[in-house]
């Protein structure tokens, strides 16, 4: 079993370089099978989710060549076989193979995806989108068969602006006959990154990043070279850690505009920041923070994926703050562990009320999901004494070189096998 051990209360100084975005990478890798030639993706983070997707590619007899920071994917000899349950369940994003295989072969056979237990996480909007394009969906327990004689462009309205459904429908529609319009599409930067990738291959997608995306079907997709955007959630996590225990801590190689909502909340509570073209630096300042309330929302609102680390920061604000989670039903699993560390937090329905400031003292905690794990790391870095985190596989799924990056700026953090 792997654990992370942190000797907390150390001041962090220096520069942390942000990796490629996990949530873009996990869509780009399945999307790459749509090319008729070869796709090169660079700035690919080395995280376990990336490896799990490359394993699925290999299962499908796709040639995958992984080198430092890049992956070359050649689907010329690909075989469209069933993606068995262990492969499908390894991560959430395996479901992008549904859209990509349907788009390429008009047939996909796979199982319900895995991922963090942060809510029920249905895929009904993905399936409705595929059906609108002309596919027939049959399911038996966890197994899904999605197939079509022909895929035809359609007008699709998403009841919820779902990131996964928007991307999956784009993947299925890119080679469909005619034009598909996705209304109430999600607007996250990762969607723009995937649309740009497909357009680099010859797709005709407009409107990505707005709530109406238009996809004009094409017959062939060619060779392309593409770069993953910086991970805004990783960047945001480190900026929050900077606000907790940084002194001139710079988070580099990021796109600050992608984190406008976080930056304005940090400035509101009194965190002194320097925002550059591709970095955010938490400057040296007195930590005397005001309270605030946050409510998670689809992009460009406050990201649900930063809600858990931000809650740690609220334990250091002077008074009562509130966190309202609107995207996932089960995203307060980190709260009992923050309370074990000394935080004063009450959860009622979908709102957590945090009373600060409270001193945090190290103890044993659990990373219940990926971003809860990030919250535990942030809390452990602030707390006095030793914090031991178990279930760290969740953290390693999403944060490249987290131990090295934090050690390099002065943290006492180690990954141990026990
Ligand atoms: C993606 C991100 C995740 C982030 C989330 C919201 C990836 C790999 N993961 O997840 O980190 O927390 O966006 O920003 O990119 N829903 C349905 N039916 C569906 C699909 C979604 O009801 O068919 C609901 C979900 O239960 C949830 C909401 O829509 O309440 C948003 O989900 P969605 O945007 O699809 O999240 P993911 O793409 O799974």
Q: What is the 3D shape?
A: globular
- Strand composition percent: 25-35%
What molecules are bound to this protein? uridine-diphosphate-N-acetylglucosamine
User: What is the CA-atom radius of gyration, in angstroms?
Assistant: 21 Å
Overall residue-averaged pLDDT value: 97
Report on the biggest sheet: 4 strands, mixed
Number of helices: 14
The share of residues in helices is: 25-40%
| Uncertain ranges | none
How many DSSP E strands?
23
Structural class: alpha+beta
Strand order across the largest sheet: 21-22-1-23
Q: CA-to-CA gap between the ends?
A: 5 Å
Descriptive terms for the model:
4-stranded mixed sheet, globular, 418 residues, binds uridine-diphosphate-N-acetylglucosamine
Question: What does this protein structure show overall?
Answer:
The strands form six sheets. This protein has a four-stranded mixed beta sheet with strand order 21-22-1-23. Strand 21, helix 12 and strand 22 form a beta-alpha-beta unit. The longest helix has 14 residues, at 232-245. The protein is built from 14 helices and 23 strands. It is α+β, with helices and mostly antiparallel strands. The chain has helices at residues 22-31, 48-59, 85-89, 96-105, 124-132, 163-173, 189-200, 232-245, 260-269, 304-314, 335-341, 370-382, 393-396, 402-408, and strands at 2-7, 12-17, 39-42, 63-67, 70-74, 107-111, 136-140, 143-147, 155-157, 179-183, 204-206, 212-216, 224-227, 246-252, 273-275, 279-282, 293-295, 319-324, 344-348, 351-356, 364-366, 386-390, 412-417. The model has no long low-confidence stretch (mean pLDDT 97). Helix 8 (232-245) packs parallel to helix 12. It is globular and about 60 Å long. It binds uridine-diphosphate-N-acetylglucosamine. Residues 23, 26, 92-93, 119, 121-126, 160, 162-165, 186, 304-305, 327-328 line the site of uridine-diphosphate-N-acetylglucosamine.
């Amino acid at each position: 079993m792997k654990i992370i051990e942190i000797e907390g209360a150390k001041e962090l100084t220096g520069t942390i370089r942000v990796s490629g975005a996990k949530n873009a990478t996990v869509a780009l890798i399945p999307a790459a099978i749509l090319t008729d030639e070869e796709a090169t993706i660079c700035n690919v983070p080395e995280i376990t989710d990336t490896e799990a997707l490359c394993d699925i590619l290999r299962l499908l007899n796709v040639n995958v060549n992984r080198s430092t920071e890049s992956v070359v994917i050649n689907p010329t000899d690909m075989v469209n076989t069933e993606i068995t349950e262990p492969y499908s369940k390894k991560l959430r994003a395996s479901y992008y193979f549904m859209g990509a295989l349907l788009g390429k072969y008009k047939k996909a056979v796979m199982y319900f995806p895995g991922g963090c237990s942060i809510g029920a996480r249905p895929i009904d909007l993905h399936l409705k989108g595929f059906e609108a394009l002309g596919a027939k969906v049959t399911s038996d327990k966890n197994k899904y068969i999605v197939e079509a004689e022909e895929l035809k462009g359609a007008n699709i309205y998403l009841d919820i602006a779902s990131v996964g459904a928007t991307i999956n429908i784009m993947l299925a529609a890119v080679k469909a006959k005619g034009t598909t319009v996705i209304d109430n599409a999600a607007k996250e930067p990762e969607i723009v990154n995937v649309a740009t990738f497909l357009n680099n291959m010859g797709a005709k997608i407009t409107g990505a990043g707005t709530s109406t995306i238009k996809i004009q079907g094409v017959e062939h997709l060619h060779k392309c070279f593409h770069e993953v955007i910086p991970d805004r959630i990783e960047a945001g996590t480190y900026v929050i850690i900077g606000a907790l225990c940084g002194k001139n801590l710079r988070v580099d190689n990021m796109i600050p505009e992608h984190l406008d909502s976080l930056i304005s909340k940090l400035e509101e509570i009194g965190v002194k920041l320097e925002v550059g073209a591709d970095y955010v630096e938490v400057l040296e300042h007195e930590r005397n923070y005001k309270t605030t309330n946050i409510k998670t929302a689809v992009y460009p609102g406050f990201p649900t994926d930063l809600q858990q680390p931000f809650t740690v920061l609220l334990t250091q604000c002077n008074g009562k703050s509130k966190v309202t989670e609107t995207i996932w039903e089960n995203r307060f699993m980190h709260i009992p562990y923050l309370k074990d560390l000394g935080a004063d937090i009450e959860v009622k329905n979908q709102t957590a009320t945090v009373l600060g400031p409270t001193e945090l003292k190290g103890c044993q905690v659990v990373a219940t999901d990926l971003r809860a794990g990030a919250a535990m790391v942030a809390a452990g870095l602030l707390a006095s004494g030793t914090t031991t985190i178990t279930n760290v596989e969740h953290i390693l799924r999403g944060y490249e070189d987290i131990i090295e990056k934090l050690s390099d700026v002065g943290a006492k953090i180690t990954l141990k096998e026990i």
